[in-house]
Design brief:
The protein has helices spanning 33-38, 62-76, 111-117, 119-132, 148-167, 185-189, 191-194, 205-213, 231-246, 264-269, 282-291, 294-305, 310-324; strands spanning 22-27, 43-48, 80-84, 137-142, 178-182, 200-203, 250-253, 274-277. It is 43% helix and 12% strand. The longest helix is centred in the middle third of the chain and has 20 residues, at 148-167. The structure holds phosphoenolpyruvate and magnesium ion (MG). Magnesium ion (MG) binds at residues 143, 183, 204, 206-207.
């Protein structure tokens, strides 16, 4: 990591006409916090917690995780830190469980499905995250949620973990916000109902694009078909943002799309509340937001939604953005 200070990156991400977007950071390691703060990150929008479980033969215990998570919460306080519960499976495995024999791992036992099949492992993490909530502005979110039953079961596990903490006399924030990642087409379709169950949504476009377009995000043969500006993807994102707002909850987006200068003005047109991206990309994206006008973003979104093909959308967005910046 090279220390590069951009003038203006500590200023709020606010358009010329006064619309404010929260710009948070995606991290995998606590050591990235310095880069987050130097680059003007206003908090952590996605902490990918699986990295503490990789490259070791044992499993981290509750105290080890609670110490690590509490340090992160305390360093970032009063800024927000969103802990995403384990997203193992697909391409990431832990030694103690080994790789599963699955023909289609991306559609297999990953993320929340894996955690629900390993309740003790899940509870350990839920207790550690809850303990960290006593030290800062902590939220929790569940990955790969596909429907109501799954989110209700995950929340029940969180309550169980917190009941245990209570009986052990441990401190935690009983009001810790609970969110879900929207990264499956099923969750998009269920967004208005899911919004009644949680405090916020975070749209995971890396997976949402993969599952919506049927394009394996790790397969180079079809990478040319992995298109963030596909009309189906944009309609899905808009549907989720609208459903969140109708229910009075925040809509955030933490996929790579949040660091794409061609996508961010469209997301702003949708009135996204928050974006979360890699720390190094924050200054450039903040600059784009600070040079934008909400009225123009809304006009761009309207024009984009009138296009029926991804080719047309790509041309329109490139022409508009090149013309402007
Ligand atoms: C996503 O799917 O967009 C996301 C942010 O999660 P990950 O890349 O860790 O799957
Ligand atoms: Mg994902």
């Amino acid at each position: 990591y090279q220390r590069r200070i951009y003038r203006g990156c500590q200023l709020p991400a606010e358009t010329i006409d006064g619309y404010r977007v929260q710009v948070l950071a995606n991290i995998e390691l606590i050591e990235e916090v310095a880069a987050v703060l130097d680059n003007g990150g206003e908090g952590i929008g996605l902490y990918r917690t699986e990295y503490s479980y990789l490259n070791r033969t044992d499993l981290p215990g509750e105290d080890e995780l609670a110490d690590k998570y509490s340090d992160l919460a305390a360093i970032m306080s009063p800024r927000k830190v969103i802990f995403r519960t384990l997203d193992l499976g697909a391409d990431k495995f832990i030694a103690s469980f080994g790789a599963l024999d699955e023909a289609n791992p991306a559609m297999g036992l990953r993320a929340i499905r894996f955690c629900m099949q390993h309740p003790e492992l899940f509870k350990t993490q839920l207790k550690a995250i809850s303990r960290a909530s006593a030290y800062g502005n902590v939220s929790i979110m569940f990955p790969m949620i596909s429907g109501l039953r799954e989110v209700r079961r995950a929340k029940a596990k969180l309550r169980e973990a917190q009941d245990e903490l209570r009986s052990q006399g441990r401190r935690f924030n009983a009001e810790m916000p609970v969110g879900i990642m929207i990264e499956l087409p099923a969750a998009v379709m269920m967004a208005s109902m899911l919004a009644e169950e949680v405090d916020f949504f975070s749209i995971g476009t890396n997976d949402l694009i993969q599952y919506s377009l049927g394009i394996d995000r790790t397969n180079a043969h079809v990478s040319y078909l992995y298109q963030p500006l596909h009309p189906a993807v944009l309609r899905s994102i808009k549907h989720v943002v609208d459903a969140a707002h109708q229910a009075g909850i925040e809509a955030s987006l933490c996929g790579e799309v949040a660091s794409d200068p061609f996508c961010v003005p469209i997301l702003m047109g949708m009135q996204i509340d928050c974006i979360s991206l890699s720390p190094q990309a924050i200054p450039g994206i903040k600059r784009i937001i600070r040079q934008a006008r909400m009225s123009e973003c809304k006009a761009l979104l309207r024009d984009v939604l009138a296009c029926r093909t991804v080719g047309k959308i790509n041309r329109l967005v490139r022409d508009t953005i090149f013309h402007k910046y």
